[in-house]
Amino acid sequence: MLIPLPFGAALACPSSMLIRLRRTQHLVFFFILLIPLPFGAQKLIPPPCWYIQVIYMSFRGLRDADPLDTSVLVLQDRHRSHLVYTEQFQEVLHPRQKMRAFLGMWRMDPRIRPYVIRAGFYGIYRLGHIIIDWPLITSLVERWRPETHTFHLPVGEMTITLQDVAILLGLRIDGPAVTGTCVLDVAGLCDELLGVIPPDEALRGSAISIRWLCQQLSTPAPDANDVALQRSARGFILALMGSFLFADKKGVHVHLCFLSLLRDFTHTTSYSWGGAVLAHTYRELCRASLDRRRGISGCITLIQLWSWERLHVGRPDFGRSAAYPTPPFPHALRDDDADIVAGDVAEGVDDVLPVQQGVQPKGEPGPTLPLGCRWRVPLTRVHNPSGVLLLYRDQLDAQTLDQVRWQPYIGELVDQLPDICLGSQDMWRMMSPLVCFEVVEWHRPERVLRQFGMHQEIPSACSYEQQLHRVDARGRHQRDWSLYHALYIALWETRAGRIITSPPMVGLMDFHDPYMQWYRRITRRFMTPPLHRDDMRFHTTPGTTLVLVSLRHG
């Protein structure tokens, strides 16, 4: 019950009401919210069995915004959440991923498939293009913290880990770091490994045009020998990297430093491509979360698949009807369908259709596809609304522990995955820098141990290395990154000595657990201010939650 009263009348209200103050222009109103106490709580307080708390709301919101302890989130003044809370910035991020365009330009020749498989990128190709829910990505970026490399959610910290990369994308995580020199003889390198020398207009510094690669290498001659097919496969993998895994701001060029790692496909598969993709994804999340950035690049599909597997927000349903209530296992997809662009993007699929479970790709000995491919089926949004940024913010503000899938990769799904997804499981919990040429970002599983079925303690302090975040490839095209980042590469090579462990998690974490008490003081809990919306705009439901939680547990 909400009753507007004049100022004097509000002060005279009995103790059976919660008084809320709202200021509009030059007028001041008190709103009286009647809140009955649950049965049994009446014995805890004097009668009457209602209580009163007077809350002062300034024109900008509920007292001072979180965090109360600023020792962890030192970049809050620059962070996107600050701009959203103060209503200075409300835009949805712009897409910078060109996977669909790449698949439309380059239909993989079946003769190069064995080389793509040998190099370890066939699962990425089969994952293909999945429609990106940009309001969902935006709502997650608003909760990403560069200081900790985690999403700060009401239930605690969560993040994309090496486990998610291995299982969803099928990329190796344990191996040599993806690094090396960018001092390249472009003409000689391209002539040797691609069989063609790019003209100046196809180059941007040391990056090469993906469209040009497609024009030159997408159609091998009918009588092409192994050398020619391997060159076509290198061009395909290189374009796949630039369109999907390591997309830049425009998604139309890819750096030739990756080409030098594709010389020998047997050696190529040994690198930690999963670690490199995660490092690049972390860097893009950090950039997008600060300073009014309007776009995000990198492996956006990984972020969305991670959210769909673990969170309730924006998660679609499988299948158009009861015929497909759940997705088939990743290996239950026709191999020949992966080469067709059918345009069924409205349901989230454009080139892969579900078939009878158990069918293996032609010419392959067993299941080879990562778990992310199970989302390459028709999807519906009947039971979970999607595509509205304000709704996603509201749902995340009101998130509860039972709405989180802390361990989604269990049971029969895991048993069906290929070895590359399940190998080196101890390395999922390694605390180590992740390296991808100029990019170095820290992997911090100690902050999200519940994702590994372990009890979460208060994590140790982690320093934000601002200088490391500033290092990029601009103006540094002629640099040997293996020497520049030698210290972090040495730490990566000793990663096996920094495996995090903890006692098993028993049930859901209690609200008063020491970790949750600490976390509520150092985080920004609510993204949306409850009182600053026009009458005709969407109003969030956690407004009352914000009031009560802030007063009782602030």
Q: Could you characterize the architecture of this molecule?
A:
This protein is of the alpha+beta class. The protein is built from 21 helices and 18 strands. A four-stranded mixed beta sheet has the order 1-3-2-4. A three-stranded antiparallel beta sheet has the order 8-9-10. The chain has a three-stranded antiparallel beta sheet with strand order 11-12-13. Helix 9 runs antiparallel to helix 10 (226-245). The chain is globular. The two termini are 25 Å apart.
Descriptive terms for the model:
18 strands, 30% helix, alpha+beta, globular, disordered C terminus, disordered N terminus, 4-stranded mixed sheet, 3-stranded antiparallel sheet, 554 residues
Poorly predicted runs are: 1-64, 320-325, 331-367, 534-538, 547-554
Q: β content, as a range?
A: 5-15%
- Radius of gyration (CA) equals 26 Å
pLDDT averaged residue by residue: 79
Strand order of the largest sheet: 1-3-2-4
- The percentage helix is 25-40%
Which outline best applies?
A: globular
Number of helical stretches of at least 4 residues: 21
Biggest sheet, open or closed, and with what strands and sense? 4 strands, mixed
Class by SSE composition: alpha+beta
Write down how many β-strands occur, each being a DSSP E stretch of 2 or more residues.
18
Distance between the termini: 25 Å
